[in-house]
Task: structure prediction
Amino acid sequence: MSVLALRLAGPLQSWGATSRFARRTTESAPTKSGVVGLLAAAVGIERGDDARLAPLAGLSFAVRIDQPGTRVRDFHTTHHPVTGKAMPVSERFYLADAVFVAALQGDTELLTHLHTAVQNPVHAPFLGRRSCPPARPVDLALTDDPTALDALRTLPWQAAPWHRRQHRSHVEIDLTVLREADPADPTADTLRDQPVSFSAAHRRHALRTVITDHVRIPHPAAGATPDRHDPFAALDEESA
Result:
């Protein structure tokens, strides 16, 4: 057993699980369907190839919220490709400036293959929607931790430098983790983001049980002397 960790950071992300018609919402953290789709694209699995998708969907999934970001709303307009008539205006919701660490637990051979694929993907990764590219490489680590939660307890905090500075007074940071749970757990919630098929003709998702947990991560700059204000520091961070 191994754990594959992915860093999901970008200007915008959108992870829909209950979007319908003209209102396209986003969850507060990446969905299993979205992350498995990212991995399937990296490997080159076609949308209708449910047999190749199944092993990826069978991986245990957890996600750590390193930087929650801000929910924003946008409006989307389009026209019918044949008639040219205007289609209904739709609402699109995004998470701005968010950072997550997703962890997938399972067979070492499969995860090693996926780890190689995300470093040299067949199709470029995106964060929930094609309009949301990652700001940094999604590859973070392949570990031998026994569970995804164990990996999320040890992986360094991935928040942006400006976000870390806002919490410099903390020795440790308490981070929320959403992880798969036993369906019989009375404290678990359900989310319809367990991928069954990505077929364009008929996408299918099953219910998945999720429980909210917490981990404490050391702050890498705890106790450091505050820096003198530099108004151009944010520009340096963006280009890094």
